[in-house]
Amino acid sequence: MKIEKTLIDGCFIIERDFFKDERGYFSRAFCRKTLEENGINADFVQSNLSENIKKYTLRGLHSQKAPYAEDKLVMCTRGSITDVCVDVRKDSPTYKKYVAVNLTEENGKCLYVPKGCAHGYISLEDDSQVLYYVTYEYTPNSEECYRFNDPAFNINWGVDESLMIISEKDKKHNLIGE
Questions:
Q1: Among 98, 112, 121, 132, which one carries the catalytic annotation?
Q2: Which band of pLDDT confidence, cut at 50, 70 and 90, is reported for residue 178?
Q3: Buried-most residue among 15, 48, 78, 150 (CB within 10 A)?
Q4: Taking a C-beta distance cutoff of 8 angstroms, is the pair 46, 40 a contact?
Q5: Per-residue pLDDT tens for 109-128?
Q6: Would residue 173 show up in a list of annotated catalytic residues for this protein?
């Protein structure tokens, strides 16, 4: 695994290694030892699988408040997505900044989203599937959500908003200044 720091403290791009032969490939989804050697201490307790039938399906931006805050390790197992981590930690030097990375099955990249950051993604192909591991179970009363098009973040999703498929819930999240 190759692990690359990003401009957001605690957010990493992780590139999985592939061992390929005539049967296909083998790749570790995560390795606790490798993560720990790179300063990432995550005790994953749940994994989630998300299917996105149509391209340009946008999910996010979501996080959970302490004491239920969670780290996430996100990977695309079919199709492709643009995955986004937004720093919403008010005391952080990168507050309101974001990291975006294209994740595909072929490139083997993953995004590690630390506690205190919001997460979202947009599918770039029909039938895209996303797998992510979390360090805390989903706790509805702890959910914090941010609007995907909040001008405070100025996220370039790479897709015209009129083409996006977004849940009514995600369309209605408050702006960070509200």
A1: 132
A2: low
A3: 150
A4: no
A5: 999 999 999 999 999 999 99
A6: no
